[in-house]
């Protein structure tokens, strides 16, 4: 499909044109032209009336299939612009949802995208009904009043059904998560701006070959794989990428997926260090806003500056220093900022940081394990080594092992016939 893009820059904050064009390409659009304007938002058309007439002339000259705004449009603005231009008009969030629809493969991802779409359509349908009642024939998708009212009822019904289905998925995931904790896995969630290299990092950590493309929102389906931290069992989960000013309806629709970040032991925030500092700063702040909304900033946070192979060591150090200062100014608690190249499998700094952070996690506690049956000692020690850290062993009639272990593993150890107690 062919499209004309429209960007309205606020006098206080410019829209990132490069990112908007990348969104258009990711959705499969051929960009015929990009129209830009710097002004405050016009209440009726978002852009000014003069700029709208300019777009009207371009439509005649270029014959696009759609006009796509880089700015979010209110339902009223959407109807006004469509009525004036007599062509299909969508905004940034409808564009993002189109990409989501193309990338969704699992049942859960498809349900989440459908829910987000319905939540987006709801105010549009309400606006259509309001206009019809006022005598304006700007129906929704060519529908009359009765059809629009019926569609509104269908949207509400379908949203309720989807939420129930997603609750079932959430319950199933909770069972799996508890089982993972019982068998002693450390949970690491990859978070960050879209196209930062999260999927490539998952592949490097877990020695996998998950699809990782240089496109926005390649990952919509949650992917979890095993890896080890200093020989200890761990799981790494890739999550949907963030974007500037992520609207609440998308966060809500994808909450069950983003919940992997909420439930993780460690959050690994991935940034592309090869980008200009202004872009790194913008994407870091956008990511922090989403993590704040998810109430995930109380977790151990490691920032991984990825793609260090695409720039110089001096540039990486300068950006790391600038990021440390920004983190301090914003009052964000960060365990460490590390430099990596997921593509080149250069993960030394990250592995060292994960090793360091592991036994500071709340799920680890110091225990004294008492074993009366000597034949069980090797098996118990092997289990502890896979999930914790042995500090000292005292052999005797009763073998005493002092170790850090995960609380979730207490049942597994007691089933082996050993006694656990906190050392005095």
UniProtKB/TrEMBL annotation:
Keywords: Cytoplasm, GTP-binding, Magnesium, Metal-binding, Nucleotide-binding
Protein name: GTPase HflX
A cellular-component GO term for this protein: cytoplasm
Pfam families to which the protein is assigned, alphabetical: GTP-bdg_M (PF16360), GTP-bdg_N (PF13167), MMR_HSR1 (PF01926)
Matching InterPro entries: G_HFLX_dom, GTP-bd, GTP-bd_M, GTPase_HflX, GTPase_HflX_N, GTPase_HflX_N_sf, P-loop_NTPase, Small_GTP-bd
Domain Hflx-type G: from-to ranges: 186-362
Subunit structure comment from the entry: Monomer. Associates with the 50S ribosomal subunit.
Cellular compartments annotated: Cytoplasm
Its job: GTPase that associates with the 50S ribosomal subunit and may have a role during protein synthesis or ribosome biogenesis.
Required cofactor(s): Mg(2+)
Binding site for GTP: 192-199, 217-221, 238-241, 306-309, 341-343
Family (UniProt): Belongs to the TRAFAC class OBG-HflX-like GTPase superfamily. HflX GTPase family.
Binding sites annotated in the UniProt record for Mg(2+): 199, 219
Domain of life: Archaea
Organism, scientific name: Thermococcus argininiproducens
PROSITE patterns linked: G_HFLX (PS51705)
Keyword Chloroplast carried by entry: no
